[in-house]
Amino acid sequence: MADKLNAVKGMNDILPPDSARWEWLEDKVRDLMARYAYRMIRTPVVEPTQLFVRGTGQTTDIVEKEMYSFEDRLNGEQLTLRPENTPGVVRAAIEHNLTYDGGKRLYYMGPMFRHERPQRGRYRQFYQLGAEVLGHPGPEVDAELMLLAHQLFTELGLQDIRVEMNSLGVPAERQAHRAALVAYFEQHQDVLDADAKRRLHTNPLRILDTKNPAMQQMAAGAPQLLAYLGEASLKHLDTVKALLDACGVRWSINPRLVRGLDYYSHTVFEFITDQLGAQGTLCGGGRYDGLFEILGGKPTPAVGWGMGLERVLELLKEQGTATGAPAPDAYAIVPDAQALPVAMRTLQALRAAGVSVQMHAGGAEGFGSMKSQFKKADGSGAHHALVFGADELAAGEVTVKALRDGQGAQQRRPLATPQDWAATLRA
């Protein structure tokens, strides 16, 4: 016998009934995105490696340590499984000139890949929901994106999620802050760990986000970017605050919330929970006005966020929110093979009329007793049983028996016109 093959560590199968929770969440997302007038974009899972080197950052952990990269055996091109999707969206927008007739509101859902240690809510293949607004420079779309994420969490019934934000200003303001930051960290060389020393002159903002407890007190005393913002940047931030206030969304300023890449500007934000341990960031985003130029496009304002769907599902489970697919409307009891043609024709008509029906399937030894079929019908969670017995078929009818409300009540329905009584089966 051949050796058993298993999935790659950190890349998980999503099986029924758990897959129903994913479908439930995805349906909620699609409905909400349509109400906000965001449209789906689908980009390739594999992109040129340089897209992420330039778009995610040469000095980030993602590019340095976590990407799945390989050489195309046909032409030698360097390719990478996407670790995130914002660079791919911007690449597509440039390639297809998406913003030629004005701004675009886009969203995506799909798998991303990072080679890191698998842990709760953090896997090597993970699924990300993202929303991006391209071509609009105003603070109102920053606020709209934050309201979009907030509304999704509200409609999912999630509790105790806090909103933190900050402003990164514009490049000149960040440069002044960066110089002050480097000078400050150079005065505390004895506290810096190896990663911080490596990033001191390449990406000092990342040091502010250190997870090293021995460095956190020192990092907390570092110069804050807010002190370097000019009038226009402060006005942009104040407008975002005012719009969130007007919509009843509570927020707080976190001066340590940063992005280490130069193409970010103005608003950055995160939605955070304390119920998932170290993986508490559910959604993170910000304005990245400089990314189009870095990827070879014309200057184009842009802002967006990404959300880990595994973490959202973990939090739903943690908070006891009921999710998943509804039970079928009906379960078809089929006593023998002779009843199959009529039963299947009737079920097709019911399904075409919007009724969900699960049909009992026989095995090598037949369809089993009526008692065993009724037991399976009850276990399916169906609201009704449809009985295609010999007496019913002889009369041109099917028995509809209630399995939940009005349990045991039953009546005959005509086989010739299932579309006329289909509505009575829908739960």
TrEMBL record:
InterPro entries linked: aa-tRNA-synth_II, aa-tRNA-synth_II/BPL/LPL, Anticodon-bd, Anticodon-bd_dom_sf, His-tRNA-ligase, HisRS-like_core, HisRS/HisZ
One Gene Ontology biological process: histidyl-tRNA aminoacylation
Pfam family, one: HGTP_anticodon
Catalysis: reaction(s): tRNA(His) + L-histidine + ATP = L-histidyl-tRNA(His) + AMP + diphosphate + H(+)
Coiled coil: none
Subcellular location: Cytoplasm
Region (Disordered): 405-427
Enzyme Commission code(s) on record: 6.1.1.21
Record's keyword terms, sorted: Aminoacyl-tRNA synthetase, ATP-binding, Cytoplasm, Ligase, Nucleotide-binding, Protein biosynthesis
Gene Ontology cellular component annotations, sorted alphabetically: cytoplasm
Residues covered by the Aminoacyl-transfer RNA synthetases class-II family profile domain: 25-335
Enzyme category, top tier: ligase
Amino acids binding L-histidine: 84-86, 114, 128, 132, 259, 263-264
Any one GO molecular-function label of the UniProt entry: ATP binding
Family: Belongs to the class-II aminoacyl-tRNA synthetase family.
Assembly description: Homodimer.
Protein name listed in UniProt: Histidine--tRNA ligase
Species in which this protein is naturally found: Ramlibacter algicola
